[in-house]
Amino acid sequence: MGTGGTATLGPVFATPRPAVVVALPGTGSDAYFARRAFGPASAAAGLDFVAVDPDPDAVIESYRTALDDAAARGPVLAAGISLGAAVAVEWAADRDPAGISGVVAALPAWTGPDTAQCPATHSAAATAAQLRADGLEPVLARMRASSPGWLADALTRSWRSQWPGLPGALEEAAQYKWPEAALLESLDVPLAVIAAADDPVHPVTVGREWARLAPRSVLTELTLDEFGADPGILGRLALSHLG
Fold it and tell me: Which residue among 68, 77, 160, 185 is buried most deeply as judged by most CB within 10 Å?
C-alpha cells in the first residue's frame, strides 16, 4: 500500500521508449482533462505528448485517427480514460506490437459487448436523453448539484465545448461494445490498469478483471478523491511502469 491509499500490484515493464504519448479522454470529457492527467508526467519524462479532443460527431473514429497519425512518428504509448481506455486497448490489439510502447487503461467501465448492466452505458444514454429533452444548462445544473466539485467543473467545461453535438457523442458512447475478454487475453503489449476503488460508474472489479486477463499487466487502485485532487497522478503511475 502506497501513500494516500494507492495500491499497486504488478511489475515494472521494460518497454520501447515512446516517440509520443497519446491521451484519450472519457465519455463527455475533453483534451484539457486528458492533458491534466497525462501531460505533466510526459513532460517530466521528456516525451512528446498529444491530448485528443473528441469529434462529437465521430468520437471513436477521431481517437483512432489520432492514434494512427501518432504511430507514424514511432512507438506510441496510448493512454486512455474510460471510453478512451477501451479504444486504446482495441487499437493496440489490432497493430504490430513493435510500434506500441504500452497502453494505459484508466477507469475501464466494462468487459464485453453485452452492456445491459454497464453503469457507464446507462449514464451516457440517460444524460443524452435529458440533454435532448431539456437542453444543456438545466442538465448542467443537475449534474453540478450531484457531482464532486472537480468533476462538475471538468464536465461543465467539456460539455459546453461539445455542445450542440454532445447528445450524439453520448449516444455513440452508450452504443459502444466494450472489449471482450478474449481480446484482453490476446493483448501482446504491456497494459497499465488504473482503477478507482470507489467509483460506481467504473467499477473496480472491471479494472481488476482487465489486469487479470491481460498477460502483461499491472494494476493500480486509487480513490476518486486522490484522482480529483491531482489528475496528474494517472500519468505518474502509468510512467512508473511504462515508458
Answer: 77
